[in-house]
Design brief:
Length: 507
Amino acid sequence: MTTAQNHKLYDVIIAGAGPVGLFLACELALAKCSVLILEKADDVNSPLKARPFGIRGLSSLSIESLHRRGMYDDLELHKTFKNPHQHAGEGAQRQVGHFAGIPLLAGNIDQSQWKHRLPSSTEPSLMSEMRELENIFTCRAKALGVEIGFGLPITGFEQIGDFVTVQSADQTFCSKWLVGCDGSRSVVRKLGGFEFAGTEPEFTGYTTMVDIADPEKLKPGRNVTGRGMYLQSQPGYVTIQDFDSGAFHNSGQDITLEHVQSVLRRISDTDVTITALRAATTWTDRARQATTYRNGRVFLAGDAAHIHSPLGGQGLNLGLGDAMNLGWKLAATIHHKAPEGLLDTYFAERYPLGMQVLDWSRAQVEVMKPNASARALNAIMRDLANTRDGATYFASRVWGIYTHYDLGNCHPLSGYSVSNFEFEDGTTIGELMHDGRGVLLDFNGDESLGKLAAEYGDQLKYVSGPAKDQLGLSVLLIRPDGIIAWANVGNTNINELKASANRWFIS
Ligand SMILES: Cc1cc2nc3c(=O)[nH]c(=O)nc-3n(C[C@H](O)[C@H](O)[C@H](O)COP(=O)(O)OP(=O)(O)OC[C@H]3O[C@@H](n4cnc5c(N)ncnc54)[C@H](O)[C@@H]3O)c2cc1C
């Protein structure tokens, strides 16, 4: 990437080699699109890519997506890593998540309520790390032929007819489509004129690694005080919420030892002494979402499209979901195999989910505020979280168990992520989706369904045969992103099935 003018016409240019941009690139390249990622950082070791607190919780849909693309086994960190905050305690008392800092205990969560999950389903949640994910996606992207240009921040772009020209300083690149996956301060969003609507922050959050001379002055666990909240999850690992309307974070000032100490002293009402600041980052609960995810040939995905506080740990999962949803639809459009309106369903399906996550994070902030009303609400939430149904509800929201799209189909499972059905030879449906195609899953071996699938060529794969547990179903039409487009019990109405298939594929 040394010439000032790159004459190659790419199908898609992606801004940003973060997890969302990389995963989207993998999806597009799997579907045989040519992809160039332009990344601002000079290389993967650049300070711009430093993630001092990079541990992330993956939710059920992200884990399923990785499984469906053969990357699940590459996740190593969760096998050895114990997050002292998220996973404190043992057995039934093990903390597996939280709502507004209220712990969700493993023993209270009744997974039998999640009827569509099977023994062969992947975990509902696990811990990964930004670096681990980016490495896995980068290896796969490169193996699939994606070009990644480091040290090439997008500085401008222009839509001309059926093309987009993209500038990085004095270099110009050309593509049919541009997707902004360039994070919360997205240049693509700003230059593309996207409205970014939402709410302003209530607090500055601090995540720090510190040496403390007198740690006994701080109480263990999460402490809501009259001024904010502090949490010492393990010695030297301190999180603080200072309800300053995000003033410190927005000021752009350096995070110094003196500043962290003064905030911690004020919030904890102690004279605790910090002797070393080893790492620190700040964040806020600003919650904003682009009012459209598409402007002509330009799309937004991930933090470029939506930001919110990391409470509940859902931003990465939301972004990976965007990528899984957009990838196959954009590829089908590029290959002229997209039914009318397919690309519009990206925004129609993803925007409401983004809004739900923003509201989930706002609800937590409301319960965490240092005032009497919030303390009263917090106590009620704590009681609920300690009940079986309450904990199961919170866990299902945090892990995305009931996440689904409204596809208007009458079967209750339509719009949900497909269960990981296991066939008699031990293969699972997730493993059969590594090629990124849609699947017509026929448990009863009805020949007419095989013929129907063949009408859609390589867009739709026909899989037939009994599964160990079929959840009472006979036929499922599964989109390339693993979402159930149509489901049936008993005899199949071919016309209905065909009408559904025609919504997603071209015969
Ligand atoms: C403290 C904290 C804890 C979190 N915990 C969780 C969690 O547990 N679970 C969870 O799901 N989420 C969590 N999140 C949120 C999650 O980290 C983000 O949602 C996720 O990183 C978004 O990925 P992305 O690829 O959209 O953006 P980013 O990760 O920000 O990547 C954007 C990429 O674009 C590049 N870039 C920027 N500008 C340009 C440009 N002009 N041109 C080219 N490239 C550019 C950047 O260098 C970067 O590589 C947390 C966030 C924070 C701050």
